[in-house]
């Protein structure tokens, strides 16, 4: 073999080796990659709320009563309680009751009724009760037992309750998604399954 033939064979071998080992063939494959994204996640919080139901200082005439009708909706609320006070400011005393609507109608008709609050002939009285259902509640200042003396009670009532509300916070989550990728492989890798 002459020198030219050896060179041609050598160059040919180099070309064959390059073809075998250089990555020249495109191959598509599927892989899983992490992807981060911001999402809104719900969470619940319990908040304390209060609402002033009434604050007044009326004159209750002798032999009469007055009442305040207040609607309390306890649905979707927890730990409901109404707190307040009654103070007879003229130095006398007064009867005080709290009824739901059914109880008030019975009491008004002089039928038996169970009040949520009952305080007889009080000068100062702090009260609290649990409104156990959605209804109209009646706060009654009763001066029916007095023949001559008007009364001037000051009264306040506040409703306290808790509500659960849904809030949202932004968090970063990692998801894994499938993507198609292409890489170049050599003929040898292709043959060997690499």
UniProtKB/TrEMBL annotation:
Keywords: Membrane, Transmembrane, Transmembrane helix. The chain crosses the membrane at residues 7-29. InterPro entries: GOLD_dom_sf. It comes from the Archaea. This is Uncharacterized protein. It comes from Pyrococcus kukulkanii. The lineage of its organism: Archaea, Methanobacteriati, Methanobacteriota, Thermococci, Thermococcales.
């Amino acid at each position: 073999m002459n020198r030219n033939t050896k060179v041609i064979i050598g160059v040919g071998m180099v070309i064959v080796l390059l073809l075998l080992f250089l990555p020249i063939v495109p191959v598509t494959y599927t892989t899983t990659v992490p992807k981060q994204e911001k999402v809104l996640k719900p969470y619940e919080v319990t908040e304390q709320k209060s609402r002033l139901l009434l604050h007044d200082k009326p004159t209750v005439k002798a032999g009469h009563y007055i009442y305040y009708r207040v609607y309390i909706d306890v649905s979707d609320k927890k730990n409901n309680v109404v707190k307040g006070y009654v103070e007879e400011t003229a130095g006398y005393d007064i009867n005080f009751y709290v009824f739901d609507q059914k109880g008030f109608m019975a009491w008004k008709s002089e039928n038996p009724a169970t009040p949520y609050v009952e305080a007889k002939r009080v000068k100062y009285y702090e009260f609290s009760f649990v409104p156990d259902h959605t209804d109209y509640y009646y706060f009654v200042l009763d001066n029916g037992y007095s023949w001559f003396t008007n009364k001037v009670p000051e009264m306040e009532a506040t409703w306290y309750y808790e509500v659960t509300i849904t809030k949202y916070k932004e968090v970063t989550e990692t998801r894994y998604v499938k993507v198609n990728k292409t890489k170049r492989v050599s003929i040898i890798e292709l043959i060997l399954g690499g």
